[in-house]
Design a protein that fits this description.
Rossmann fold, 8 helices, seven-stranded mixed sheet, Alpha-Beta Plaits, alpha/beta, single chain, 30% strand, 13 strands, 284 residues, 2 domains
Length: 284
């Protein structure tokens, strides 16, 4: 049988020798490093490490973690270790537009998402057929101004019931309350169309067309109480010009949104995203 692979994440105040300490500890444990990435941020003065290593037949995870815990305490390090095959579970939320959901579920079915989709939740019934096509539970949770607190409470129940590790807003067109944003801090990913300038409200692609924009794009970010201003995980843009209709721009925009959100979900699921204040460090 092949040896098990593990993913080690670590973040600590930047200091001389921190990478040598981690690499040396892994080497002394007789482990083979398959991939390693690191970054020291001169602004936040923090150092980030992501390592995938292969265990040996004699690997003792309990002993490894005990020894690494001592190193982490010395370096004031936040860290985690998991088996690569123990993928996190994602709860996906959607409204009526299903282009991002469709892309996520396709990648999930093909084993390319990096996460296990636990269920689909929507404030409309439109996407039920798509969830059922992929043999996934679908939960219809309507939302009105009067029922929003109860709907958000139900969402938290579903996260617990499905044992979901994080939430993906795949064009979920409801603004989450400040309390729910705090509850899901660092584990809720949203996708947002982004332009120069950025257009808010209804029909953003029609607004962009009227202003004659030359780039359209999308940003995937962590959800915070500051609407559409959370730490960015992934972005992409595509050039456009005066020949495109608003409908064609919207079609291109949907394609960008789908691929950017999928890229962000996979990066998060693989543990490659580190929060760094209002920014992120993302190891590709």
């Amino acid at each position: 049988m092949p040896n098990t692979r593990y993913i080690l994440r670590a973040a600590a105040p930047d200091a001389i020798g921190i990478l040598a300490d981690v690499a040396g500890y892994i080497a002394r444990a007789g482990l083979n490093v398959a991939e390693s990435q690191d970054f020291g941020d001169p602004d936040s003065r923090r150092f980030f490490i992501w390592v995938e290593f292969e265990s040996s037949e004699a690997f003792d995870r309990v002993s490894f973690e005990a020894g690494f815990r001592a190193l982490a305490e010395k370096r004031d390090m936040a860290w985690s270790l998991r088996r690569k095959n123990d993928v996190p579970r994602a709860l996906i939320m959607v409204s009526k537009g299903d282009h991002c959901l469709n892309d996520l579920l396709y990648r999930h079915r093909r084993g390319q998402l990096g996460a296990d989709v636990s269920a689909v939740v929507s404030n409309h019934d439109d996407a039920r057929w798509l969830a059922e096509r992929h043999d996934l539970p679908f939960h219809h949770v309507p939302v009105t101004a009067a029922t929003k607190p109860a709907a958000e409470a139900r969402l938290l129940e579903l996260i617990d019931e499905t044992e979901s590790d994080f939430v993906v807003l795949a064009r979920y067109m409801q603004v989450l309350s400040d309390g729910l944003c705090r509850e899901l801090s660092g584990r809720c990913i949203n996708i947002h169309h982004s332009f120069l300038p950025s257009f808010k409200g209804a029909k953003p692609y029609h607004q962009a067309h009227r202003r004659g924009v030359k780039l359209i794009g999308a940003s995937a970010h962590y959800v915070t109480a500051d609407l559409d201003e959370g730490p960015i995980i992934a972005q992409d843009v595509t050039p456009v010009d005066h020949r495109l209709t608003p409908e064609r721009m919207a079609q291109i925009g949907r394609d960008i949104e789908a691929r950017v959100l999928s890229r962000a979900v996979t990066a998060h699921a693989e543990g490659r995203v580190f929060l760094n204040g209002v920014r992120t460090v993302v190891f590709e």
